[in-house]
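Homework help board

Subject: predicted structure for assignment chain

Our instructor gave us this sequence and asked us to write out the predicted structure in token form, then describe one feature. I got the tokens but I'm not sure how to describe them. Can anyone check?
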Amino acid sequence: MNQVDQKVEVQRRPEWLRVQFPSGPNFHDLLQIMRTQTLHTVCEEARCPNIGECWGRRTATFLILGNICTRNCAYCAIAHGLPTEVDWMEPERVARAVQRMGLRHAVITSVNRDDLKDGGAMIFAETIRRIRAYVPGCTVEVLIPDFKGDPEALRIVLEARPEILNHNIETVRRVFKQVRHGGNYERSLELLQRVKAWGYPCLTKSGIMVGLGEEWEEILETMRDLRAVDCDILTIGQYLQPGKDYVPVSRFYTPEEFAALKIIGLRMGFRHVEAGPLVRSSYHADDHARLLDRSLGNSADS
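My token output:
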């Protein structure tokens, strides 16, 4: 039986993967802001284990273009199906929320919208512009889908001048087709390569989940592939099975193994590597934004 098709009980997590129940004034304040502005966050929709920590430090990743994805990846807890119509007032509400939260760095992501001609690129661009209008000086990071490889959709987003453009490779080449339905490994690399080839000044970023059945050398191969397209920032975290109907965890990596991957990544030339069991793509994204204050030299950030 194919590993992806198996339905097994969710594995018991080791001690280093235990997180605190979200609480505290900042958490509840952000929750109220999201509800009053009728907004979604990937923190909630994807059941991120860091929601308590991140919201406690007043950072959140806004999920635009609704909360229904047109793809059905084997690891992702976001609902899939037929999305709703595009809400053109959403960028305005996101910008208001960023203003109310007092953010200096905003992270915007979306579900896949393969039903739209531009994949939702115009909404991304308008959200960036509205944040700039409401909160001058706020840096913006976008975590975008692959837009089915459409270069014009990518250019629409880049013309709005985000400071960081993130697109997650998610897993190694061999496992990719099994767990990322609708995606393409080479297409994801090509997207990141285009950003640099076209000369846009933003930093590029990508992320890998481990525990999906990959081998250690395959992780290193994927890291080398990302460096070959001059990716600046890398995040590496442990895949956690959201429920019985998702691909099971093949193994739990130790904190020491994540520390080793960070060292290897920095030696490869990544400007910053965030690696750890609970690391997610937007984990400590406000810290990553500090790279924007430095010269874009070749020195690695440790």
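Reply (TA_rk): Your tokens look well-formed. For the description, you could write something like this. The first helix runs from residue 25 to 36. That's the kind of observation they're looking for.
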